[in-house]
From TrEMBL:
Belongs to the ATP12 family. This is ATP12 chaperone protein. It comes from the Bacteria. Gene3D superfamilies: ATP12 ATPase, ATP12-like. The keyword Transcription does not apply. SUPFAM superfamilies: ATP12-like (SSF160909). Keywords: Chaperone, Membrane, Transit peptide, Transmembrane, Transmembrane helix. InterPro entries: ATP12_ATP_synth-F1-assembly (IPR011419), ATP12_ATP_synth-F1-assembly_N (IPR042272), ATP12_ortho_dom_sf (IPR023335). The chain crosses the membrane at residues 150-176. Pfam families: ATP12. The keyword Transit peptide applies.
Amino acid sequence: MHKRFWKTVSVEEADGRFQPVLDGRPIRLPQGHVLSVPTRALAQGIAAEWGRIAEGASFTPDSLPLTRIAGTMVERISPDPAAARQALLELGVDDGLCYRTASSPVTDRVFDWLKGKEIFPNVTDGLMPVAQSGFYMAGLRQLLARQDDVGLAALGVLAPALGSLLLALALVAGVVSEGDAVSLANADEEKQLTVWGRDDELIRTMTNRVTDVREGLQFLAFGQQK
């Protein structure tokens, strides 16, 4: 838990990148890197987070979601984007979208989009792991290769939140809407609530998913805005 110690928040440009600064000083990340991002819009979004914290108020990393995602991008993704792509690829090996018991308009749109890119995941209505082909993995690698650091950072939030790299990729590509993606990801919890009644833990999981997806998309939008 930390308390606000700064009086002013602003954004400065340095070497073609943008830094949110507190009282004229750059923000330092846990490993010592300066928090520097590729677009002014993202830096302004981060600065706004710090500016919203009341004077003397306590805050945690959860109060600063854009800062948290940007910190991951700067300290973990940018130094080794290949490792970040590999970590995401491993989510696609056993993708949650491949274990749906019934199709829906949303899943149909995702699979049609993948088909157009010659990516054909194997699916099952059972619980046993389903093996994926080398062609499928190669197709996913190509999709991930097109993602810059901002896209990889956003996917690093969206894919775990949605339980599916395929759904996250379709979401950032505009194939499905935020609401449709979250509704599909929440389907299992919704079914359990219908059968068993109110469960605070399930409701918390669904609420956190909504928040994570919103924050991941906001980061992506700011990071892509020129």
